[in-house]
Amino acid sequence: MFESPVKTRDLILFSFFSFMIIFFVFLSSFFDERTKIVFCNVGQGDAAYIRIRNKIDVLIDAGPDKSVLSCLGKYMPFWDRKIELAFLSHPNNDHYNGYFFIADRYKIDKFITVDTASLIVSKTYKKLLQKILNKKIKIEEAVAGKIIWPGFNILWPPKNFASNNDNDFPA
């Protein structure tokens, strides 16, 4: 009959070396203690991902759509599905719409946003806050002087800051 050009020995060797390469890539990223800062290309809007000493994941804004997911998929370790700190600089949809998708795919420990009492916010923003509450994610207000995590101090806005322009908040 017909004999396969791929021998069993070759297949076993290929599998072994493939496993070893994957294993060493995993180990090198697992023990990488460097801090990474990535500015995600999300089109209109902002998103920045920071991984601190291979332990703490921080996301600042999430862009206007789900394109932030591809950035996180590329730069976050594949085994890590938790974002410790998620910041929203101000409630413009080109900064927060991506959080709808993030909240579905990742566990978020804390969601930090500005006080919106002096702002007129959209129904979509209110839906995002409701989704975050439904997922039992802790929401904290960003106010100067507040320590939200060891080594993370809020610098702006000051307490009782009021503005009707959402771009006066941190960007």
TrEMBL record:
InterPro entries the UniProt entry points to: Competence_DNA_uptake, RibonucZ/Hydroxyglut_hydro
Keywords attached to this entry: Membrane, Transmembrane, Transmembrane helix
Ranges that cross the membrane: 12-31
Residues spanning the signal sequence: none
Gene3D superfamilies noted in UniProt: Ribonuclease Z/Hydroxyacylglutathione hydrolase-like
Highest taxon of source: Bacteria
PANTHER family per UniProt: DNA INTERNALIZATION/COMPETENCE PROTEIN COMEC/REC2, RECOMBINATION PROTEIN 2
Protein name as it appears in the record: Metallo-beta-lactamase domain-containing protein
